Amino acid sequence: MKWTDLLALRRTLREFVDWDDYVVHEMERLRNGLYYTAQLCDGSAVPALSLCHDVLTNLRFGLPHITQAEDLEEVPMSVLRFPHREVPGFENLPMFVRFNELGQTRPQRDQSMTEALAAVGDLGIFIKAAKRCGGLEEFQDDLQVALKTMSQLARLRPQAWVEALDNVKAKRPQAWVEALDNVKAMAVTKQVPSASPGLTVEMELELVSDKDDVEVAYALVTPGGQPFGDLLQFRVEKTEVESPICVILKAPETCVEGLQGEVKMMRWTLANISKVSWPKDACCQLFYNTPGFANLPCSIEMPEEVPAGMTVEVEVPVLLPEKEGQFKAMWAVTSPSLSDFGEVLITEFKVSDFPFMEWMLAEEAEVASFSMVSSAPSEAPELLHVSSTAAATFSAEHLMHEHVLPTHMEVTYPEDLEGKDGYVSLGSVHGCGAWVVQIILKNDGPVPWPQDSALTCCFGSGFGCPRLPMDSVQPGEGVCLTMELEVKDGPSMSGWVLSSGDTVFGPVFLAQVS
Question: Is pTM, for the whole model, over 0.90?
Answer without folding.
Answer: no
